[in-house]
Recover the amino acids of this structure.
């Protein structure tokens, strides 16, 4: 009996880069309005600020600070299939955008507003075919 190889798949296509070199790390892909400079993650087709249709793709910084977060102790009734409890919130990047994210890499009680964090990519859950669904998360930077 042949078994199909399981894949690592992004939670949504187009959210991050897929580096060709093992020395490079994936990064979040955003867009910047060519008219007013507004930055959006995830990418959009139109600037909500000035309605410009020309937005340039940019790569976001991998380091930021926790802007806000909440600890979720009960599984939501929606489509979320990850583990519970989990920490969810916003990271402010030096690029001038806030990214919605899950947090990882520490006990949730240690999270603090203003804490410096770095981008990582981890398994969120397995799909029905047991493929790993990967998403972006942020974790505290050790030693800072």
């Amino acid at each position: 009996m042949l078994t199909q190889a399981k894949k690592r798949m992004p939670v949504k296509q187009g959210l991050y880069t897929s580096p060709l070199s093992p020395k490079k790390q994936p990064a979040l892909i955003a867009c910047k309005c060519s008219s007013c400079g507004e930055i959006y993650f995830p990418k959009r087709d139109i600037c909500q600020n000035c309605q410009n249709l020309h937005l340039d793709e940019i790569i976001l910084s991998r380091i930021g600070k926790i802007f806000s977060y909440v600890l979720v102790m009960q599984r939501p009734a929606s489509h979320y299939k990850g583990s519970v409890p989990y920490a969810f919130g916003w990271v402010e990047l030096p690029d001038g955008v806030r990214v919605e994210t899950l947090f990882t890499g520490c006990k949730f009680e240690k999270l603090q507003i203003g804490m410096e964090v770095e981008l990582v990519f981890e398994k969120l859950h397995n799909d029905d075919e047991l493929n790993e669904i990967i998403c972006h998360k942020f974790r505290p930077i050790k030693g800072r």
Observations:
- Residues 8-140 form one domain.
- The longest strand covers residues 116-126.
